[in-house]
Amino acid sequence: MRKPLIIKFVVLFFILACQPNAHPSFIVNWGNSWDPGDGPGYGFVANWLVNNGYYANLNDAKNFAQFGYIGYNPAQPDPFYWNLPQGAIVEIVQEISAYKNITTFGYYKGSGGSKTLTQIFNAAQNGPTTIFPAGNFGFYTNSPYGGGVFWFTGRAENLTSQSGAYAVNSGGDPQSVIYELSQNEKWLIAWEDLDVTGSSTDNDYQDMFVTVTAIPEPNSAALLLLGLISLLLYNLTKIPKAALKRYPLNA
Question: What ranges do the domains of the chain cover?
């Protein structure tokens, strides 16, 4: 009886093992913040998570902030590209940086020298703003440090000097750390505005926090509305028996 089950597990393991992993896992090189505050950068992420109701316990939030980002676990590849059919609501929710008044933010499409960049926020704006990019897109920040450096959610799109602080970071070290706050619905992007593979030991990833919320598909909203209307009509047609006896329909 057990043999078929064992064979199924073996086949499933072989299939999963053979699946290509285009975006392998990576490790974030956390550092202490140069900006106001103390301790490693993931503490800022943890505080934001607690203050916004995602965690009640700060230690649990710190554990998630340090190890729960997408890409740390090979089973959850780093989604530096999004493809949201109905668009997204984007908002800068926190900035703790000396450059916060001059750093811009936007989304990009394509890769390499053919990338197209669309600015969403300038230094004076932070949202929320709805965007409707078609197809795959990523996000970028434009840091004035070093003459105006563009940092991208796609590690391969950052400076060619970013060989990575760890061997596993073969695509270069990340300038942003992405967390899934609500499955397939809401994400937090935590940015570092200095080169994490350069001489900087900042690496606090709290220079800009951006939330990305997927807009629900209209079909789902329409089905919900249809269900509510059907329920209302059903209740309206259920005339009490006592009322029928007193006021017969064929009277």
Answer: 22-217
